[in-house]
Specification:
The chain is mostly helical. It contains three helices and no strands.
Amino acid sequence: DIEKSKVMIFAKKENIFSIKKEIDSISQTILDFKEQFKENVYFLAVENIKKKMQVIEELNFEKAGISARIGAFNKELEETKNKKDRIFKIDICPTCLQTVSGSYKQNVLTEAESKIASINSALSKLRNDFEVCSKNIENERKDLGALEDKKTELEKIRLKSEETEKLKIKLVELEKQKQFYWNIKRSNAGSRC
């Protein structure tokens, strides 16, 4: 009977030691976690990501428009150059069969050169706008990446915070168990007298 009591006391001491060790570990984990999850900061990050994605979408749309206008101007430039070259190659008009005069050719050349200069100027501005838009998209994507990293970090904090809350509940339960074993140990110690 005494041997049985010794084994029970030893087992209870082991349980108390194990519980105390787990309590210490959980307490340290709770103390180590100092960051608080702020739901409003998380939702602000999510909103900022949505806004950033909208900005990127708008910039991509703008870039596509610029690209289309560049394509249209390139086509117009090519057509104007072809028209200029065709006029200088013909001596007789294929429609009215009259001689094409040098002054008419000069007028077409002047008009074509003016149009080519205007198109080249517009193309230069559009290419610059295209580059600026591309840079803006790149910068916005970097910002988006940073916002997504921030969101991920906040999600980690939220998970750690939830885990910490569960650990606090477990800590209370372990403290109750420890108290229960202490009470049993005391009652057993008192009954031996």
